[in-house]
Amino acid sequence: MFRFAKAPTYLLLSALLSSSIPAIASDDNRLPEMGTTASSTLTIDKEREYGDAYMRVIRASQPVISDPLLSDYVQSLGHKLVANAEGVRTPFYFFLIQNYEINAFAFFGGHVALHSGLFLHAQSESELASVLAHEIAHVTQRHLARKMEADAKNSPLTVAALVGSLLLTVAAPEAGIAAIHATTAANIQGQINFTRSNEKEADSIGIKTLAKAGFDAHAMPRFFERLAEQYRYTSKLPAMLLTHPLPESRVTDSRMRARNYPTVVLPPSERYLLARSRVVARNAGFSETSSLNWLNRELKKAAPNRRKELNYGKALVYIDNAKYKQAHQLLDPLIAGEPDNMFYIDAATDLDLNQKQYQRAISRLVNAQKNNPDSSVLRINLANAYLEAGKYQQSIQILNRYTYDHPDDTNGWALLAKSYAKLGNRAAELASFGELLALRAQWDKAINNYMQAAQMAKLGSMEQARYDARIDQLRFQRQKFKALQ
């Protein structure tokens, strides 16, 4: 069973919203009227700029899961909640980090991260959605911005300096931690009180959003209670309980607020169960044996109509370990029963490609696109299938459009760079990889890639002009990024 050796540095993003010092129990269950100020210094546009910078550094420093299917699922779930949230002032972007620790955090620009370990502890989609709803509330209420403005009033540094310290925390942990500690250690009691209010507000607003989106509002206190009970007597708390403390008053408060909403009995979400099995098979850090043991334990207690999602997970494990006969035995009946199921199509395509059945994979994906022409998952999978089949021009044709539509998706740029490399187009390969480097805040390397590409392009050509223009853009972005520090 895999665990990271130490807590990741980005936990300090959410630690600014939540103190690891236990909050004092309170009988006051009234939600404080905190409003959504924090506009005197940090504008929404500025928050989005900071969020983009943090996201680039996280891509470079943390194991962000780039699985198109899981990304699509988390984005769909998150935006269903956002559509029912109040006070939304920024686009939202949801993503997964491969980490067995239970945690989630939100930061500037509507960025919300979930640890893959949450899938192993949330027993329903409503429970997972309750975590997302809580983090969405942190963003809509601008808790991080308000926290920094409050800290700035009690320190000699400006909000901009505090934001720069936070960016340094992600990029260079030692410098960032020192800077943050220097500015926030002055008034610990005030920090605890502010944190308690933030968490209660996020719980209350999150429960309301959860109910409006059609989920079970009681899932939030149920998840809280199970976590609190599970770790009541342990000395090593999971990251989520360090950054989102659960004193008894908060658990009780969330339970009381949930009583204002009817209990909603929802059928098990097939997409959630499939995503959960996919995480266990590929993104929990488990070995083959551990993954199969987990899935088999769940199979023993699963209802007959819920076993297919677990068999799907087992099929993935077999595919990834080249046990294709066992994979076919489990997957073939699944895709025969649900030929349009995206999870099954994706797994069957993986199986085709691993067995070098390239044309079968391509035909499968082309046929699937007829029923779902706008699917980004199918598009990126088809581009990959063409690449694996040696049909590089077809892959490039899809990827050029895909990267235009999804410029922040590292999958598209990585596949495009690989496709150009296979064709021997070194300049285009360098440019494509340069975009991948820029998404990871590796500005100097990105600019160098484009400079090499421009030198290789024909003098006076459209390609050279395009590369030169992109160099100017990247230099400007690098300057803005460095100014944040």
From TrEMBL:
One Pfam match, given by its short name, reads Peptidase_M48
**Signal peptide positions (record):** 1-25
- Which residues are Zn(2+)-binding? H134, H138, E199
The UniProt record lists the Peptidase M48 domain at 71-253
Q: Which cofactor does it need?
A: Zn(2+)
Alphabetized, the UniProt keywords read: Hydrolase, Metal-binding, Metalloprotease, Periplasm, Protease, Signal, Zinc
- Where in the cell is the protein located? Periplasm
Q: Write down how the cofactor binds this protein.
A: Binds 1 zinc ion per subunit.
What top-level class of enzyme does the UniProt entry assign?
hydrolase
Source organism's superkingdom? Bacteria
* Record keyword Lipoprotein present: no
Q: Which residues form the active site?
A: E135, D203 (proton donor)
Role, per record: Functions as both a chaperone and a metalloprotease. Maintains the integrity of the outer membrane by promoting either the assembly or the elimination of outer membrane proteins, depending on their folding state.
How is this protein named in the record?
Putative beta-barrel assembly-enhancing protease
Q: Which organism is it from?
A: Photobacterium angustum
